[in-house]
Design brief:
12-stranded mixed β-sheet, alpha+beta, 25 helices, Rossmann fold
């Protein structure tokens, strides 16, 4: 036993020694020593600092010329005003959807039926195709400092000129993402998810070094160092443990550089593109220009032929123009290095890629080379500022460019959406994938409601069906309001129930108290509010006094049935037969009216008589409304709830095609059914909430609840403010129960047919509680309404583009986060036929 213990100790010792040896071998090429949590930045050797900010990309293809010009001008301004050395980095690698696929595979393991498995497999296959055909692109800004004071100053400067205002260029990122970025630098051929956890929180192991050496966080260095080592023995490429790398150096630019010229370099696939920039001493620049102009004068004066004279005059004019820009326009000269780090698993693949890049760039006028025996120097430049890198011997001279030329080269053009538990929804106009999940929770995305607007044939119905398909396949609860029956085939595909709402499939008793809050008092209050709205639909002219009388009479009725939430009384979840029906209410109202009439007969004063007459009128108005409902629509409203219990039914479609033209009765029934859905949502959400708060489930283990309401404008609009209040309340509380409500309509204008300022405010609140707004093609008249409601949520050009969108194209605005234009993807093999009935 002693020998075994000794062997184990020796093995651990050798492992630690090997780890230390690997670290020693990499210390001279990776200057990172630790992460300073107080400054939130990397500390390098010799007390220097390096920090990383994320650049927020733009979708230039969906911006107006004015918006593009503003972006170029803002970048130009940043180059003029920020004099510190900066490093701009573009990471271009194949899309990695391992996280999304792993979540879908977990759902697959839980699935009990072949249909769900079939659809999950299809979604996984879609993600695999994205991985094979889509490149993702991330942009970052690095900056450096020699000491803590300089670091704080540089950070404040960058925040002032790149991260202030409504149109920010950069934003802060987490420690985790910074670590993953530098890990990718050192392991370019390894698939790394920048959002994955790089290190456990506070996982530090500080090693004290010798007196004149820097301290070292061994755990951090172990994470970021090249896995398998790295060597620079070959003159033209780098050999790493995970593959091969070659640095291509751009040493000459085209004679004429156009707008967005840097984008050509920043979009090279399977590479890391780096652009270093430093400021030149302007006094020295002016002296050099002055000397050059004098030389060109002399050259022209001594020219022997017209060609020499012409060239000298042309060059002199260019120098004069540049001098004018420097003196009058505040132009500055920047020193720049452009490098492209190309990676590949094999040498043959590396040669092929580099050859293709050389050919493509040369065709555009870029001159590129590989610096032989300098690949180590090129690699080390990833962690160095321009000035630091150019202190070394044999460094190639930088390119001289004006801030305007750099600003006009604006390269940050890309858009994508990669939710971690999502499926494929479409592709952005910039070539990025849109992987969308309503239930993604971030610092900016806090709830799960959505509004979808689009004309007939715009793709709105297809979008709704794709969301239904996704949530059905992964086992979430779904409630669909189907106006035309077009959702029936999809619901039946997943074995869901279709319920006719005209009473043929059973009555839904409007007087049954459904669960709508966290306690019985809340449920009772919400139930009374629902019934006020219900009768307001039946009696549109109902005034506040009559509504108050209705509440009083209902309280008396529920008191008779022992259904008041007093003294801990449970009033929800009872048997349907324990609740009163409309017939019971009619009997009660008739008796109440008789009592008031009897009181009127014995009233002694005019005041008493007047009060009794008023009360009798109110009760009679309510009684007439109840009579009308029983006599004309008793099969829908009068009786105990006979619809089969759907609390545990995953997918239910309410077919409202037969009642959609019944006006106020339709609105009343819709409100009734939504209340039932909300009861189901709370039943599921309460269980999930307890599990989540106790820490017994992960996000992907939570069963969510989605309510999908097509043609919602028919009853959710400003003409019915009480129903608006109810829907807004549900939308506000839905996130607590892991529920989301999707409201769909043909136009944003449909929500506000005739609206006062007060009612318009309710529509604004409705949209505020909708985290996601999908705008498909709509009439030009809708643009003004969109501007009023969205504010800065969409750009001017995005709103202007809405009337011209093609089928399937949409603009998604995510409140507080971003907006993205993309085209939804529809499989011709297995979605198009099943989704027939609308696009």
């Amino acid at each position: 036993m002693k020998f075994k213990k000794k062997d184990k100790e020796e093995k651990e010792k050798r492992k630690k020694e090997g780890k230390k040896k690997d670290i020693r071998n990499c210390l001279d090429i990776i200057p990172i020593r630790e992460y300073d949590d107080s400054l939130e930045t990397f500390k390098l050797e010799n007390g220097r600092y390096m920090d990383i900010r994320k650049i927020i990309p733009r979708d230039l293809g969906n911006m107006s010329e004015d918006e593009k010009q503003i972006e170029r001008m803002n970048l130009n301004k940043a180059f003029k005003t920020v004099e510190i050395d900066m490093k701009f980095v573009s990471m271009n690698f194949p899309l990695n959807t391992n996280k999304q696929k792993s979540v879908l595979l977990e759902y697959r393991e839980k699935a009990r039926d072949e249909v769900r498995i079939k659809w999950i497999d299809r979604q996984i296959r879609e993600l695999e195709l994205c991985d094979s055909n889509i490149n993702t692109r991330n942009f970052y800004l690095f900056f450096f400092a020699d000491n803590e004071k300089e670091f704080i100053k540089n950070k404040e400067l960058l925040e002032k000129y790149t991260a202030a205002g409504t149109v920010r260029l950069t934003t802060e990122i987490t420690k985790n993402e910074k670590i993953q970025i530098v890990t990718k630098f050192n392991n370019m051929n390894t698939t790394i998810d920048l959002m994955d956890e790089a290190m456990k929180k506070d996982d530090k192991y500080i090693v004290e070094r010798k007196e004149n050496e820097d301290i070292l966080d061994e755990n951090l260095f172990t994470v970021i160092q090249p896995k398998g080592g790295i060597t620079f023995k070959e003159p033209s490429y780098i050999t790493a443990g995970d593959g091969y790398i070659r640095c291509l150096h751009i040493y000459e630019l085209p004679n004429t550089i156009n707008f967005y010229w840097i984008a050509k370099l920043f979009s090279v696939p399977s590479s890391i593109c780096v652009f270093d920039v430093s400021s030149k001493d302007m006094n020295e620049v002016k002296k050099n220009i002055n000397r050059s102009i004098t030389e060109e004068y002399s050259r022209g004066a001594h020219a022997k032929d017209y060609m020499d004279l012409y060239d000298a005059e042309k060059r002199r004019r260019e120098l004069q123009d540049l001098y004018d820009d420097l003196t009058r326009m505040g132009e500055v000269i920047k020193l720049c290095d452009f490098r492209i780090f190309v990676k590949a698993k094999t040498r043959e693949e590396l040669e092929e890629r580099c050859s293709e890049i050389f050919k493509n760039l040369e065709a555009e006028g870029y001159r590129t080379t590989t610096l032989l025996n300098e690949q180590k120097t090129e690699f080390c430049s990833l962690y160095e500022s321009y000035r630091e890198a150019h202190k070394k011997p044999f460094m190639m001279r930088g390119l001289n460019l004006t801030s305007e030329q750099l600003g006009n080269g604006f390269p940050f053009n890309y858009s994508e959406l990669l939710d971690p538990e999502a499926s494929l929804l479409g592709f952005s106009n910039a070539g990025g994938a849109v992987l969308f999940d309503e239930f993604t929770k971030t610092a900016k995305r806090k709830h799960y409601n959505a509004i979808v607007c689009g004309d007939m044939g715009s793709g709105k119905s297809t979008h709704l069906k794709k969301r239904l398909k996704h949530h059905a396949s992964i086992g979430n609860f779904i409630r669909v309001f189907d106006v035309s029956g077009e959702f029936t085939p999809l619901v039946q595909e997943f074995g869901g129930k279709v319920i006719k709402c005209n009473g043929l499939d059973g009555i839904l008793n409007p007087l049954e108290i459904l669960r709508s809050g966290e306690d019985e008092f809340t449920s009772y209050s919400n139930h009374l509010a629902k019934l006020k709205s219900f009768f307001k639909c039946i009696i549109p002219s109902m005034a506040d006094d009559l509504m108050q009388e209705l509440a009083n009479q209902l309280r008396e009725l529920y008191g008779i049935f022992d259904l008041l939430p007093d003294n801990g009384n449970i009033i929800t979840g009872k048997e349907p037969s324990e609740y009163p029906t409309l017939s019971d209410f009619r009997v009660y109202l008739a008796k109440a009216l008789a009592i008031v009439n009897d009181m009127d007969k014995v009233s002694k004063t005019g005041v008493e008589k007047s009060l009794n007459v008023g009360k009798a009128k109110y009760i009679n108005d309510i009684l007439r409304a109840v009579d009308m409902l029983i006599n004309n629509y008793g099969n829908m409203f009068d009786g105990y709830t006979a619809i089969v219990d759907i609390t545990n039914e995953k997918i239910v479609s309410f077919d409202i095609s037969d009642i959609k033209d019944l006006g106020e009765v339709f609105t009343a029934q819709m409100q009734n059914i939504v209340s039932l859905c909300w009861d189901n949502a709370i039943s599921n959400g309460t269980v999930m909430k307890k599990r989540w708060e106790s820490g017994t489930v992960r996000s992907e283990d939570i069963t969510k609840f989605i309510i999908l309401i097509d043609e919602s404008h028919r009853w959710v609009n400003t003409s019915m403010p009480l129903i608006l209040d109810m829907i807004i309340r549900y939308m506000r509380e839905a996130r607590k129960y892991f529920a989301g409500i999707i409201l769909a309509s043909q136009s944003i204008r449909d929500f506000m047919p005739e609206a006062s300022d007060k009612d318009l405010e309710k529509i604004r609140i409705l949209f505020e509680h909708s985290q996601y707004k999908f705008m498909f093609k709509q009439d030009s008249a809708a643009k003004e309404h969109i501007r009023k409601i969205f504010g800065n949520g969409m750009t001017y050009s995005q709103i202007e583009s809405i009337p011209f969108l093609e089928a399937g194209e949409t603009v998604l605005s995510i409140a507080g986060d971003r907006s993205i234009a993309f085209k939804e993807w529809l499989s011709k093999d297995y979605e198009e036929q099943l989704f027939s009935g609308g696009r």
